[in-house]
Every structure is written in structure tokens, then in C-alpha cells.
């Protein structure tokens, strides 16, 4: 590509963008309107910026333009108000980038079957951005990824325009920390870490987020910002792995792991509780650490904690299956032919997300051993297991099931009533703490 001469002097690009950001006239673009992108777009639109969301999914674009939210943590009336006042709009057409001043990239970063990073979404988003890229833009990658991505993958694609980073355009990485379903921490009040390719990039990134979010923390580079997210999620994954391993040990020794954790949590320093469960789920904790282990393998270091925790966490659906099998055996019933009801299938409490949910593995295992499986979940109308759709039944199915397995501890469920109705319950979440019954088998 030929090298266009910058239309303005270097200082002018920075000053112009600073001015647009502080007057909230900068035209903000969000690429990828999912669990991360939509709340972020709504925050910037609520702060007064004109926001355009770009997504490949026509259905999402149509819903936003009709004033509807499809993300649980974003209220439809908020979207409707912002769309009505013209501050929020969505499109599938990337050519709007010609008109935009800033872009946040919030596309998926899954793993390939081989557990290697799948960068195809980031690459394809950047290819589209590069087509309409122009001087004076601020681009911020938010998708979780391995250290080096912003510099090694995104930067060359944008520099192919002939523009120079830190002078003609500005590039940062800022990890997204949103915690779906958390009523106390949402996009606005979760501190935002940002690191730029140059100091000018970091400063503009800070100025930008500072308009809409409460607390912005600068770091010295995009690599540090990328690694921050991976430390946070790896810390969580490994500690959950430890809690799961402790739960399996405690089970073998006849010790109540929940009582152990409760008592250990009374230590006022040096201990932070993590809880066992049916296995990891969601788009982050089971996936992101493998981005780090892939990258560290390239650097000649095996990420042994990550691999071990991944193995232990991956055993949990099998452990739950064995709990169900032994609980049925104690009542002289085989798994084969038994009716098992899963109470909750979302990967965590009070959300509708089943991505990577251990419930899917548990359904698969139970069916493979000949069980008839049903489920109920107030947030999930159907799931797909082994390529087939399984629609939810109501909670009343609990009374017909030979065994009910609490996989997700949604707070809307009346657990006393469940215990009354059920014949046998395997509780993988300690949802039945404080309820005594010989029908209950705890993890
Ligand atoms: N969901 C979370 O709780 C969470 C938390 C922190 C970080 N993250 C990270 O944020 C990123 C996004 O996650 P998410 O949960 O919002 O994903 P999501 O699947 O909910 O949303 C991604 C959106 O991007 C769109 N998309 C895909 N390719 C595109 C392209 N080339 N151009 C435009 N749009 C495209 C999809 O249609 C989808 O609407 C991931 O890297 C994830 O790891 C997610």
C-alpha cells in the first residue's frame, strides 16, 4: 500500500483527538457487540459520546437498532433511550469506520481444538478496520489474548496503511474484566487497566476511558496490559483447580470440604476462599490461561500449573457423574434407565450463558451411560448436547426424577421446596447449605 502523507502535523492529531474526547464529540466505534462490547458501548453512549456498534450478526444489530438488549446486564430501557436520542446505533457495515475516531475491538478469542489460540476473529476485524483506517484514530484491543498480540498482530495490520503509531494513530490494549451477573461491579466501576504502544497512546487511552469509567490504571506497555488479564484469570483457574482437588481429597477422607473452606475463611490474612464445583465454564477462565501456556511454550517455558489445573478442573464433570452413580447405587439403582434432572445448566449463578458449561459434559456422560436426562434453568430455554437440542422442562420435573443434580445455584430457586420434591439430590454447589436431609449428597 502507498504511504499517504499525514494530513496534519503530529501534534495536531493528538490535540484534535484530545479535544474530541474531552468534549465527548469523538465518534466511538465498538467492533463486536457481545457480553463485553454492548455494555461498553452503552457506557460511552451514556457518557454522551455518539457510539456506533459494528457486528457481523445481523440479528444483534437489528435488535439494538430496535432499542432491545440481548445482554442480561444491559437493561432494554437504557438501550431504547440511547437509540432514540441517536447516541447509540449498530451496523454490519464496516465502512462507517471512515467516520469514526475511536475503535474498541471486543471480538471472541476462543481456542482451537488443539488448545491453540484462535486469532481469526481479531485478524478478520483488523482486516476490515484497515480498509477504512485513517489518520487520528485511537484503536484499543479488549479481547483477551496472549502477550504480544497487539504489537505482533494488530500493529502491523494498521501500520500497513503507512501511518505511524504514536504520531498518526494510537494503539492500546485494555483487558476487559466484566463479570456477567455481578450486581456490584459493572463496566463503569470496574477499574480499567490500559497500556499503549507508545506513551502518547497510553495517555490517549487513559483520557478516553476516563470519560466514561470511574477508575483507569495505566501500565507501561500493551504486553503488560495483556499479561495482567492472563494473570488474573490464571490465578482464578488455578485456585479453583486447587479447591476442586481438595474437594476430591476431602470426599475420599469423609470430610466436608464446605465446612473446611468456611472455617479457613475466618483467617483474616493470607487466605482467599475459592470453591469447588462441577467444573469450569464460560468464555474466560477455562480458555484464557491456555493462551498464556501456548505463548510461554514458544518462549521455552512449560506452564505446568495451568496444565495441571486444566486437567483437574476437566475431571470435575466425571467426579460429579461418579457421585450420581454411587448415590443411585446406594439406592440399588443403576444409572442406565434412571431419570436424572439437572437443576441449572448455566456456567454460573444468575446468568444465561452456557458456553463451556460443565452441565453439557455432565448431560453427555449421563446419556452415554444410558440415563434419561432432563433439565430446568430459569435463564436457559434449551441447550445443544452432541448436536441435538434439549429443551428445558419446568422445575416440577424434579419430583419425577430418580436423582436431581444441582449444577448451577441460581438464586431464584426455592431450594427448600426442591428438597421436599426430590427423591435424591447431588449438590455440586453447596446450594443446600443449612438444609438437613438424607436425600442430599454433597460434593
Ligand atoms: N464474557 C465475559 O465475561 C468476558 C469477560 C472478560 C473478557 N472477555 C473477552 O472479551 C472478548 C469478547 O467476549 P464476549 O463474551 O463479549 O464474546 P461474545 O461472543 O459475546 O461477543 C462477540 C461479538 O463479536 C462479534 N464478532 C465476531 N467476529 C466479528 C468481526 N470480525 N467483526 C465484528 N464483530 C464480530 C460476534 O458476532 C459477537 O456478537 C473475548 O476475548 C473474551 O475472552 C469476555
The SSE order reads HEHEHHEEHEHEEHEHHHHEHEEEEHEE
Radius of gyration: 24 Å
Largest sheet: 8 strands, mixed
**Which blocks of ≥5 consecutive residues have pLDDT under 50?**
none
Portion in beta strands: 5-15%
Give the tally of β-strands: 15
Global geometry: elongated
Distance between the termini: 60 Å
Give, in spatial order, the strands making up the sheet with the most strands: 3-2-1-4-5-6-7-8
Work out the helix count: 13
What percent of the residues sit in helical stretches (DSSP H or I)?
25-40%
Structural class: alpha/beta
Oligomerization state: single chain
Bound molecules: nicotinamide-adenine-dinucleotide
- Average pLDDT works out at 95
Explain the overall architecture.
With 443 residues, this protein is an alpha/beta fold. It is built from 13 helices and 15 strands. It has helices at residues 10-22, 37-46, 58-65, 76-84, 120-131, 149-159, 199-212, 222-253, 257-264, 288-298, 304-330, 358-368, 415-421, and strands at 28-31, 51-54, 88-91, 102-105, 138-141, 170-173, 192-196, 216-219, 339-343, 372-376, 382-385, 388-391, 403-406, 425-427, 440-442. The chain has an 8-stranded mixed sheet, sandwiched between helices. Helix 1 (10-22) runs parallel beside helix 7 (199-212). It is elongated and about 80 Å long. The mean pLDDT is 95. It binds nicotinamide-adenine-dinucleotide (NAD).
Amino acid at each position: 500500500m502507498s504511504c499517504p502523507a499525514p494530513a496534519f502535523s503530529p501534534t495536531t492529531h493528538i490535540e484534535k483527538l484530545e479535544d474530541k474526547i474531552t468534549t465527548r464529540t469523538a465518534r466511538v466505534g465498538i467492533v463486536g457487540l457481545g457480553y463485553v462490547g454492548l455494555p461498553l458501548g452503552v457506557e460511552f453512549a451514556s457518557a454522551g459520546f455518539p457510539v456506533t456498534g459494528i457486528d457481523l450478526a445481523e440479528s444483534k444489530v437489528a435488535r439494538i437498532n430496535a432499542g432491545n438488549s440481548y445482554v442480561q446486564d444491559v437493561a432494554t430501557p437504557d438501550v431504547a433511550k440511547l437509540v432514540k436520542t441517536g447516541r447509540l446505533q449498530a451496523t454490519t457495515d464496516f465502512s462507517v469506520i471512515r467516520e469514526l475516531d475511536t475503535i474498541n475491538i471486543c471480538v471472541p478469542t476462543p481456542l482451537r481444538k488443539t488448545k491453540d489460540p484462535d486469532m481469526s476473529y481479531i485478524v478478520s476485524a483488523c482486516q476490515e478496520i484497515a480498509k477504512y483506517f485513517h489518520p487520528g484514530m485511537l484503536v484499543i484491543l479488549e479481547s483477551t489474548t496472549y502477550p504480544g498480540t497487539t504489537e505482533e498482530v494488530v500493529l502491523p495490520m494498521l501500520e500497513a496503511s503507512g501511518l505511524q503509531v504514536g504520531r498518526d494513530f494510537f494503539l492500546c490494549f485494555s483487558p476487559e474484566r466484566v463479570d456477567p451477573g455481578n450486581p456490584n461491579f459493572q463496566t463503569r466501576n470496574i477499574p480499567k487497566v490500559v497500556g499503549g504502544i507508545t506513551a502518547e497512546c497510553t495517555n490517549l487511552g487513559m483520557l478516553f476511558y476516563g470519560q466514561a469509567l470511574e477508575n483507569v490504571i495505566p501500565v507501561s506497555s500493551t504486553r503488560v496490559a495483556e499479561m495482567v488479564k492472563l494473570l488474573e484469570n490464571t490465578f482464578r483457574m488455578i485456585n479453583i483447580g486447587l479447591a476442586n482437588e481438595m474437594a476430591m481429597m476431602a470426599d475420599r477422607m469423609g470430610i466436608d470440604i464446605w465446612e473446611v473452606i468456611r472455617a479457613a475463611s475466618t483467617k483474616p490474612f493470607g487466605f482467599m476462599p475459592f470453591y469447588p464445583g462441577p467444573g469450569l465454564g464460560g468464555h474466560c477462565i477455562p480458555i484464557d490461561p491456555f493462551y498464556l501456556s501456548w505463548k510461554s511454550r514458544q518462549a521455552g517455558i512449560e506452564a505446568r500449573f495451568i496444565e495441571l489445573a486444566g486437567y483437574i478442573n476437566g475431571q470435575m464433570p466425571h467426579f460429579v457423574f461418579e457421585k450420581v452413580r454411587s448415590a443411585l447405587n446406594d439406592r440399588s439403582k443403576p444409572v442406565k434407565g434412571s431419570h436424572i434432572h439437572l437443576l441449572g445448566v448455566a456456567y454460573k449463578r444468575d446468568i444465561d450463558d452456557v458456553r463451556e458449561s460443565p452441565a453439557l459434559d455432565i448431560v453427555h456422560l449421563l446419556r452415554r451411560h444410558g440415563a434419561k436426562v432432563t433439565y430446568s434453568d430459569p435463564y436457559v430455554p434449551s441447550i445443544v448436547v452432541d448436536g441435538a437440542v434439549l429443551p428445558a422442562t419446568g422445575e416440577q420435573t424434579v419430583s419425577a426424577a430418580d436423582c436431581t443434580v444441582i449444577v448451577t445455584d441460581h438464586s431464584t430457586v426455592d431450594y427448600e421446596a426442591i428438597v421436599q420434591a426430590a427423591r435424591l439430590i447431588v449438590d455440586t454447589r453447596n446450594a443446600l447449605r443449612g438444609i438437613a436431609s438424607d436425600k442430599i449428597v454433597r460434593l
